[in-house]
Fold this protein.
Amino acid sequence: MPEKTWNHKKYLMPVIIALWFSFLFLPFKGIKAAILLFVILTFAIPLLKYALNLIKKIHLPADTFRGYVPSDKRYFFLLLVPLMTAPFFAEDYIIDVVINSGIYIILALGLNIVVGFAGLLNLGFVAFYAIGAYSYALINTKLGLGFWSAMPVSVLLTMLSGFLLAVPALRLRGDYLALVTLGFGEIVRLVLNNWDSFTKGPNGISGIMPPYIFNISLGKLSYYYYLVLIFVVISVFVIRRVHDSKTGRAWISLREDEIASSAMGINTTLYKLYSFAFGSFWAGLAGCLFAAKMRFISPESFSFMESVLILCMVILGGLGSIAGVVIGAVILVFLPEALRGVETYRMLAMGCGMVLLMVFRPQGLFGGKNVSIGS
Amino acid sequence: MSLLEVKALSKHFGGIRAIEEITFNTRSGIILSIIGPNGAGKTTLFNCLTGFLRPTKGSVVFSEKEISYLSADKINLLGISRTFQNIRLFKEMTVIENVMVAQHSKIRSGFLSAVIRSSNFKEEERIAKERSFEYLELLGIEAYAEKISGSLPYGAQRKLEIARALATEATLILLDEPTAGMNPQETDEMMARIKNLRELGKTIILIEHDMKVVMGISDRIIVLDHGVKIAEGVPYDIKNNPMVIEAYLGRETH
Ligand SMILES: Nc1ncnc2c1ncn2[C@@H]1O[C@H](COP(=O)(O)OP(=O)(O)OP(=O)(O)O)[C@@H](O)[C@H]1O
Ligand SMILES: [Mg+2]
């Protein structure tokens, strides 16, 4: 008997979905188009499902790209040479994109601490990026503090906000945590957008100062490039070391099995909190670098799509893998630039890319393991 | 003097009385086995002792400290460690990393010394790794040290869980059916290893399904049935207790 009801469901679901879409379509294009859409969808959905099943049956070699990432530390110095000399031969446009990817690397590494290490799905990570950027912008423009004093304060403020979100949110698990973080991201954006007297609302804040070293402005693109490069190296270095310590092991144990983790004497709530605070630390830093580079920020830069983009970087490279996340960030910053010619389709292309990745390599390009998120 | 004193411990799930008014004591350095048929409440008792469930009533005193209201991690830090009936390893971590997680509270140097790699940090990491390796050797799974733990054969996973529980350096070790799913030879080997732990001065509470398995190694046995303690004593007495035979063995024969 259950066989039969199951079959019912299998054929009924596409019809219901098709009906729903057609109804949504009805007010815009009239009854004819809606009926056409209904008919197409009714057949297309099962076909799509069938195709997906076929795709799933194709087995790509289980080989991981990780093998191609040299693990020897000496290669790292080899990589430093082109990175150090880049501003001398690359054009400004490329340098600009590289700086952007540097900022995103820091941001994605921060999110990776929360999602990849501790296994907590955070859909509102952009909020911390925004708090870092706005803190720096406001401290700089209203109090006149320079980068080197305003940045640490902003980063600390961001960390504090990470704590404040984490304390109530960490009582929730899995999907609920994801929803609350998503809500937090939107709330922060809405506050920035509507608190005109303080944040200038949608007009944004302009006149942000770039960093100075001994009266030399780092606002010049090539100088700023080195500044970001140094911070990227620091972030990789610090996060790696924390990962290879008892803190990192505690985070990963939390992701793997929270119950067993607490049976090992680990205060799971505390370590979740640490992961939020440490993750938002880097988001705060990235925010400062962003604000100081652009000299102008507005709430537009901190939409939900930005959170999704950062999450994609982390997933693309492979949850939990530092090298993977760095490469994921670089790919997702450069790809839209490369696809500029086909502007209108690039979001679609990237979306398709992510879907294909999820189908074929759910562990990301460089993750060797199958990590699930949420609890 | 008792290491662990359980007094009138009850846990109810709605209408289900999973355990009811259970009282017993454990001396230091013995193997105490808890046996009983499916659903007798053995695992529930463990969960109450280790802070994974809050008891409905009753008290648990460990080393003269009331622990029934403490969280799981606090109880572990006081010196009670456990394994799980359905293995709970950190699957994506290597075997040695699994055990090193258990050394968590033994490592003092924090966040900053990890970032600057202070000599203190390096020394502590080295010691933790060495100790973890010793625990693997104790269970005879050191050959797997660098393997991803999820890829281990079933028996080795069970052993790793015990190694991990030991590595918290707890004095009281609770093992929930460590021989579940094992063949007779593996079961014998496991029992020999557990006996060995007693020689190392650990106190062990062992849950077992099969009464025959624990007869040889237990110093005391407690029999649970429908959440109630129906007998307690040395193995010989338990074997000949008519209530146990009726409630437990009697049911198993048909
Ligand atoms: N979280 C829970 N919620 C509701 N009922 C539960 C819960 N945990 C256990 N029970 C019930 O409590 C009773 C005792 O279960 P428990 O798992 O402690 O038995 P057990 O002796 O360990 O059995 P087994 O030998 O099968 O492991 C069972 O009736 C079970 O259904
Ligand atoms: Mg059980």
In short: The interface with chain B takes residues 238, 241-242, 244-247, 249-250, 252-253, 256-257, 259-268, 369, 371 of chain A (CB under 8 Å). The longest strand of chain A covers residues 205-206.
